[in-house]
Design goal:
eleven-stranded mixed sheet, single chain, mainly beta, 49 strands
Length: about 525
């Protein structure tokens, strides 16, 4: 990388130089290995090439965020390894770390990355008194106090001197959660840090005094209030229309916008990574939302030997997408993306198999093969929320009669999954969400003090539209420490409102260890086995 002008000293912007290296690699025979001599490398969005892309579970069809920028952008390159050799990548502004698109056998390995000024602000309460709190601000969170009001921002662009974003405390309050660094617990609390605000005073040395109308002494001493504006503008890592992609041995200190997203790809490995903030910076949060999300992946998903610490949403979510039917024209079904965070990318290829389900019961009413597709490309703004597919067989009569009652899932893109040997902690929601009909194993993991169910087996065609049924799942030899007192450790709960047939089939929960509470709460499942589990 340095031979093309990348600066290992961490002073100059290496974005353009790294892009030139990757482009050059695409023009030589593989296999290819791109090496960062150990050092510090800076990346800025100003010199990153914008690409119009549409990502599942992010910004949907919002035109303000159609263009995405990445520090490492790989497209149409096979047999590629990007080896950081222990380097540190420092990202600035609203910039994703990597995209791998239309490529095969790509590995990213051996580096640490962080954002210099993340769009999550972690404020630690160091003093409380009658009607006030004093908080400290991490050095990587620039701020300004004007007229008693507080705003946070990024560091300024080196090209035009302006911050990449600036948010008031009202905007940041949309995504508040609280971390207890002593107990190691993350939770979403309704008590907003800036409720009943009178004024904010800058005390110097990155200390802020927050004065309230109420003269009682507020709680929260020692807590870290983690604040964010909630727009998922991009993903930290994006894998799309690719095969055999591995992300290994990374130290991921902050994932901007979203986590690592696999979308309509095949065979993805996430192994041996540390997803955790650098606590010496005063920061707790390491992910703007989920750490890892697999949306419409086939083949295998392997997630082993990772640490997941400090997300603002779930650690791992693996699912497909239900598209409601809007109309039927002969053998053609007209469909729509129903959730506002998911739109714009193709959901089917010719030759894919699909299943039609009743939205209320999630009962399957037919399967067929796609013979024609008309809809979004994922690269432009055409047909962002609507598409149509043509079936190789007649559409069931009940779907023709009442199309709005049904949805469609691409069942070719449903992976087999292995999640093993990971540690989950400081998660305010769930450790693992899983809805796939591929054979799946969740084993030998440690879940520590999660605020909701550690494992959630769901599926719905009415709210998140995350498909589909689980057909063969084993949950074994996991340790569930300090489980939530308000949620079961393992929740099997498809969101069907009409219960006429089981949704999930064959789930085994065996040889796990848990520290009290309810081990399993289940509905809508056939062949559930719970055995040889130990409650301490």
């Amino acid at each position: 990388m340095t031979e093309f002008g990348a600066d290992r000293s961490g002073i100059a912007d290496s974005t353009a130089a790294v892009a030139a290296v990757i482009e050059a690699a695409g023009n030589i025979p593989g296999p290819r290995r791109l090496v960062f001599p150990k050092g510090t490398y800076r990346f800025y969005p100003d010199r990153a090439v914008p690409h119009e892309l549409y990502l599942s579970n992010t910004i949907g069809a919002d035109p303000a965020f159609r263009d995405k920028r990445f520090a490492l952008y790989v497209e149409g390159i096979d047999d590629l390894t990007i080896d950081g050799q222990g380097s540190r990548f420092e990202l600035h502004g609203q910039l994703g770390l990597f995209a791998v698109i239309g490529s095969s056998r790509v590995t990213l390995t051996n580096f640490e990355f962080d954002h210099v000024a993340p769009r999550i602000v972690d404020l630690t309460v160091i003093e409380t008194g009658p009607g006030y709190r004093i908080v400290t601000v991490p050095a990587g969170s620039p701020y300004v106090v004007e007229g008693g009001q507080l705003s946070f921002m990024t560091d300024p662009s080196p090209y035009d001197g302006t911050p990449y974003w600036r948010h008031s405390t009202d905007e940041l309050g949309a995504g508040q959660q609280v971390f207890d660094p002593v107990a190691g617990l993350a939770s979403r609390r309704p008590a907003w840090l800036f409720d009943n605000l009178v004024s904010v005073t800058d005390l110097g040395e990155r200390r802020l005094r927050i004065d309230y109308r109420d003269e009682t002494t507020p709680d929260g001493l020692g807590m870290v209030y983690s604040l964010r504006e909630v727009t998922r503008d991009t993903a930290a890592g994006f894998i799309w229309q690719s095969k055999s992609v591995a992300v290994t041995n990374l130290k991921a200190r902050y994932l901007h916008g979203f986590g690592i997203l696999g979308q309509f790809s095949e065979d993805i490995v996430v192994e041996g990574n540390e997803f955790a903030a650098d606590r010496s910076t005063g920061r707790i949060a390491a992910a703007f939302a989920d750490f890892v999300q697999m949306s419409g992946v086939k083949g295998t998903v392997t997630i082993v030997g990772n640490t997941f610490d400090g997300a603002h949403d779930d650690a791992i979510n693996i699912h497909g997408t239900y598209l409601p039917v809007t109309a039927v024209d002969g053998r053609t079904l007209h469909l729509r993306y129903a959730h506002n965070e998911t739109a714009g990318f193709p959901q089917f290829h010719v030759g894919d198999e699909f299943e039609i389900v009743n939205r209320a019961s999630l009962r399957a009413v037919g399967q067929a093969v796609v013979t024609a597709v008309d809809g979004p490309t994922g690269r432009d703004s055409r047909s962002l929320t609507t598409m149509s597919i043509t079936s190789d067989s007649d559409v069931p009569a009940e779907v023709v009669k009442d199309p709005d009652a049904f949805a469609v899932e691409n069942i070719t893109y449903t992976p087999a999954v292995r999640i093993a040997g990971n540690t989950f902690r400081n998660i305010p929601t769930r450790g693992i969400l899983l809805t796939t009909r591929g054979r799946s194993v969740i084993e030998d993991n440690v879940f520590d003090d999660l605020d909701m169910a550690s494992i959630f087996i769901s599926g719905d065609a009415s709210s998140w539209f995350e498909s589909g049924p689980v057909h063969d799942l084993t949950i074994r030899r996991n340790t569930f420490r300090r489980p939530s007192p308000n949620h079961p450790v393992i929740l099997i709960h498809p969101e069907n409102t009409v219960i006429d047939v089981p949704v999930h089939d064959t789930i085994r929960i065996e040889d796990n260890t848990y520290e009290g509470g309810v081990l399993v709460e289940a509905k809508g499942v056939r062949n559930l086995v719970v055995g040889n589990n130990l409650m301490l």
